[in-house]
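Incident log, structure service

09:12 report received: a user says their structure output differs between two submissions of the same chain.
09:20 pulled the input from the user's history:
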Amino acid sequence: MLNLAGGNTTHLRDSIYYIEDGTVVILVESTLFKVHQSMLIKDRSTFQSMFSLDEHSVPKQDEAASTVGPTTREGTDDSNPIVLQGDSADEFRALLWSLYSLPSDILLAMTAEASDLKFIHLAQISHKYQFRSIEAWALQVLTSYYALGSVTPHIETLVQLTELAVLCDSSDLLNAAILKWKRMVGEGKALSTIIIVAERLNLRGVLGLAYHSMMLKGRSEWDADPLLSRSQRIRLLSGHYTLSQICSELPSTPPRLKHANSCLHRSQCKIGWAELWKTIHTTKEGGISSQIMKLQSADLLGRMMLAESIIKAFGEGIPTEGLLDDIHEKCFKAALKTTQEKVKEIQENLVDWFSDVM
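09:34 re-ran on a clean worker, output below:
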């Protein structure tokens, strides 16, 4: 991580963080920074041990006298800087900004819409060099910013944000990013890109929804998309076949009914629930479930969500034409809850039906 720069004169001094009275020169990419060593060892960062090791590596005065040539310690000037490998100048600049800025400057950046990339850079580099308090602060700022429903990041920024959440093991930030991904899927945007990113980062919930949404676009859409791989197209075909089979059996497979303790006619109640479920999924044109009949044959999620809405509407008092007569009132409420749980389960596990094995 600490290497000689070799005196390359093509390196440029940073316009902000090349501080004349700084004590250490650092090269990041092609940019030279001159800062105070005392700033970099804050928060018990990795720099503290790096500088300590560097000091121990310099020969003592009597030892230096017996060596041939100079023994200049790295970081002393532009021709012999400390070189940080694997970092970007923007990341290191963000770290220095957090260390040197006035409180008013930081507050201003926190309210600016363009501050998200700076805080992503800050969280990345503070995580790498173990500035724990700065990392926690940067993650909290990003989480608060992206938790706002009105914030719609570019997909490249959202990828960076999700990678950061995974890197730093930040569940709050990851959940905020996942909500943005799901909204994007719901809008049908960049589905193939979302599939690729979700597979790479193992975002199961997002991946299942993206596959489901892409599946509903039809095979002509998959084949025309240059980003989808052969195995991904196989998963789409597999998912379409499997979900079509499940949907065809849906009218005869209602969610399991949990009877209330006060239900005295459980057998009759169970039959009534099964008949209601079947009616919702098989009513003829113009009936209570005419909207379900318009959905695609493989749209399991859409059918279940619409069934949930119909059952909820029954519970709120729309005419039921006697469909609830045989169902105990408390059992019906339990049936609604069970249906809602089933919808959530399907959303979370959709990806399992998109297998690359036909």
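09:41 both user submissions now match this output. Likely a transient worker issue. Closing.
09:42 reviewer note: The mean pLDDT is 86. The chain has three domains: 1-61+71-86, 99-242, 250-353.
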